[in-house]
Design goal:
It is built from 13 helices and 19 strands. The chain is α+β, with helices and mostly antiparallel strands. The strands form five sheets. Strands 1, 8, 9, 10, 11, 12 and 13 form a seven-stranded antiparallel sheet that branches. A four-stranded antiparallel sheet has the order 2-7-3-4, covered by helices on one side. A four-stranded parallel sheet has the order 15-17-18-19, with helices on both faces. The two termini are 39 Å apart. Pfam families: Citrate_bind, Citrate_synth_N.
Length: 423
């Protein structure tokens, strides 16, 4: 499962679109998205309520505490919303220690209300935690002792009896309404493969629940079965993160293949780089480097898996090597290649793409004083490792090659020892 954050606009869109199918009744959610390319005249034509309602506008950028940061404007007309957006669109802000421009806003009706409730559902290994409070809103953290939580094992439906502890202290006039709402939202959460869904707050409008603020995350590995339900979903980068050209290139490759190709630059000047097969193995390598105290030297996070073909591996390896060898400074660098023990991937076949890339980039590898550490097991791994050993002799670059008898953590330790020799 991969938890991917989505914008508040998409969270509310999904809840609105599917709540009636799940519950038999509608939620009167209204929202509009505003970006640099938005034409307000066209937006009003598609969302006519914008010209007849008092409005709320706020950034939709995957960060919280917008109200406490003065980034939420209430009770505006459309002209005031347009001015608010114009003054802040593209402007850099610092949130949670991350700095970036505001590029996307959400606009909604201004909903006067008295009650503010809180609900949070989180997917865990063995089920889901459901939390609820009748004291929601911006001060939820100060009232955390009033949040009630239950755990629901996977495969168990949320019954009235199980839900009872969450709503036990609610007034009778809306206790059953909120109980049904929690039950329906949980069913929707499971049906759409949410991994996280929080409404803080939601309120009651004419006796019906109405989400005011919402955060959501989806399991993006479930896209194959949900593409019709999700529609045109966006998985934005975390606030403050902008894809580099190389990351965008790999992302494009990943979208065009049934395999998985991931690449994130952590430190362009790092001296330990990875080109690892397997999602689990890639995490182990990265975590081990950090645990050994050299996270600041880790250049990237990388993963290729799902049996990519030779041409895909070639293009992938070119990018990794180009980044790992950029701006040589005379100090040693280390490139860890390989991964765990494959189940079905032909190790020799995927190594062919890496070998071709290393032959193309041999001068760059030499100029960067690159030491390469290979560790791999799985189908046809002996042939793949033999080719890697021969490649080191052929190119005249240091390549140390190991099979499954060596540990992944041990390979990381060798890479660290390599770069510290010249430190």
């Amino acid at each position: 499962m991969a938890r991917k954050k989505i914008r508040e606009y998409d969270s509310k869109r999904l809840v609105k679109e599917h709540y009636k199918r799940i519950s038999g009744s509608e939620l009167p959610i209204k929202s509009a998205q505003v970006t640099e390319s938005t034409d307000f005249n066209e937006l009003v034509q598609s969302e006519p309520w914008l010209s007849s309602s008092k409005l709320v506008v706020k950034p939709d950028m995957l960060f919280g505490k917008r109200g406490k940061s003065g980034l939420v404007a209430l009770n505006l007309d459309l002209a005031q919303v347009a001015e608010f957006v114009k003054e802040r669109l593209g402007k850099e802000v610092v949130m949670g220690g991350c700095q970036g421009p505001i590029t996307t806003f959400i606009v909604e009706p201004f909903v006067p209300h008295n009650e503010e409730f809180y609900i949070n559902i989180v997917s865990e290994r063995l089920g889901c935690s459901i939390s609820f409070s009748e004291c929601g809103g911006i001060d939820i953290e100060e009232n955390w002792d009033k949040v009630k939580t239950i755990f629901l094992p996977t495969g168990v439906s949320l019954s009235q009896e199980i839900c009872a502890p969450l709503v036990a202290t609610l007034p009778l006039e809306f206790k059953s309404v909120i109980e049904q709402f929690i039950t329906h939202i949980y069913s929707l959460f499971v049906d759409l493969d949410f991994t996280f869904l929080e409404m803080n707050p939601f309120t009651l409008v004419d006796g019906k629940p109405y989400p005011l603020d919402m955060r959501g995350e989806l399991d993006d590995t479930a896209a194959f079965k949900n593409f019709k339900k999700w529609g045109n979903i966006e998985f934005p980068m975390p606030f403050g993160r902008v894809m580099s050209a190389t990351e965008s290139f790999i992302h494009g490759l990943d979208e065009k293949t049934s395999a998985s190709l991931k690449f994130t630059v952590l430190n362009p000047k790092g001296r330990i780089w990875t080109m690892v097969a397997g999602g689990g193995a890639s995490v182990i390598y990265a975590d081990t480097v950090g645990d050994l105290g050299f996270a600041n030297e880790l250049g990237n996070y990388a993963e290729y898996s799902g049996a990519p073909n030779e041409e895909e591996v070639l293009q992938y390896a070119r990018v990794v090597i180009d980044c790992a060898t950029a701006d040589p400074d005379g100090q040693r660098r280390a490139l860890v290649v390989g991964g765990g023990i494959a189940n079905f991937t032909d190790v020799a076949a995927t190594f062919n793409g890496i070998i071709r890339a290393m032959k193309e980039k041999v001068e760059k590898l030499k100029a960067a004083s690159m030491h390469i550490y290979v560790r791999r097991g799985g189908p046809n791994y002996q042939r793949g490792l033999a080719r890697m050993r021969a490649l080191g002799a052929e190119l005249g670059i240091p390549i140390e090659v190991y099979g499954p008898e060596a540990t992944m953590t041990g390979i990381c330790k060798q890479a660290i020892e390599c770069i510290t020799v010249s430190a």
